[in-house]
Amino acid sequence: MFVRRAYIREPDRPAQRGQWPFAVPCVSQLADEGLRFTAPVTFLVGDNGSGKSTLVEAIAEGFKLDAYGGRLAAKRGRPNPQRTPLGDVLTLETTAAGSRMLGGPRSHKHGFFLRAETAFNLTENLGGVPGYWDADTASMSHGEGFLTIFSEMMSKPGFYVMDERDHADERGADNESVAAPRSPRGAKRRHTSLYLVTDNGDENAG
Ligand SMILES: Nc1ncnc2c1ncn2[C@@H]1O[C@H](COP(=O)(O)OP(=O)(O)O)[C@@H](O)[C@H]1O
Ligand SMILES: [Mg+2]
User: Fold this and answer.
1) Is residue 66 exposed (0-12), middle (13-18) or buried (19+ Cβ within 10 Å)?
2) In whole angstroms, what is the distance from residue 138 CA to residue 127 CA?
3) Which of 7, 19, 35, 43 is the most buried (most CB within 10 A)?
4) Substitution candidate for ligand 1 out of 53, 56, 194, 197 with most atoms within 8 A of CB
5) Residue 156, pLDDT above cutoff 70
6) Which of 38, 60, 43, 77 is nearest to 159 (CA)?
7) Considering only CA atoms, which of 14, 25, 121 is closest in space to residue 66?
8) What distance in Å separates the CA atoms of residue 61 and residue 84, rounded to the nearest whole number?
9) Could you count the other beta carbons within 10 Å of the beta carbon of residue 205?
10) How many Å lie between the centroid of ligand 1 and the Cα of residue 155?
11) Best mutation site among 24, 50, 54 for ligand 1, i.e. most ligand atoms within 8 A of its Cβ?
């Protein structure tokens, strides 16, 4: 594992919780209690609007990923990496392996933030770019492009964050459910909204 805990330091904790993102209950809880990672893979599951994207974007930022999405330690990153108000105050407590990765050379930095909203732009623009993948993902289907990102960018132990697309069109359709993956044969996967923060590495790995 690379990260043990996400938390907000006392001086960074907002006194007022009335405004986004601190008005979101899971963010408020995070501010009070922190969020502890106990396994190499963590899934965040909740209703639309419950704060999963807000959390994973900030966690990605905490590990020096661009909240827009993309790889860790990009040679030529976007000129203005995207930041979020929660990311600005969130601190990650890294394990020894996590600290080594963040402090180590670029070639040892394996991490990717795959946001469904922006992954398509990445597949359009990054095929053949050094440090990414060779395949011409611009001429692939979305699904094939995703699979290329998985296989080329997430094959090594690293810090991987994934966020599924919003299902804004389905908001309110099933407010009462706490997401359990539904049958893929269903006509639509109604807001299973299954978000994944993976932190897949060996604490003792060099
Ligand atoms: N940039 C923003 N400014 C203000 N409110 C936001 C912003 N982004 C998300 N929200 C609100 O924060 C809440 C949590 O959103 P989000 O993290 O996207 O939820 P989820 O990913 O679980 O569907 C929602 O009420 C949403 O409308
Ligand atoms: Mg979301």
Assistant:
1) buried
2) 7
3) 7
4) 53
5) yes
6) 60
7) 121
8) 8
9) 12
10) 30
11) 54
Tokens 């398509």 label which residue? 120
- Segment 159-170, tens digit of pLDDT: 999 998 766 554
Model confidence pTM above 0.90: no
Contact call for residues 140 and 10 (beta carbons, < 8 A):
no
Which range, 28-42, 115-129, 170-184, is most confident?
28-42
Residues of 178-193 as b/e, b for ≥16 C-beta within 10 angstroms?
ebeeeeeeeeebebbb
Question: Which ligand 1 atom sits nearest the alpha carbon of residue 55?
Answer: 17
Is the beta carbon of 50 within 6 A of some atom in ligand 1?
yes
Structure tokens at 171: 């908001």
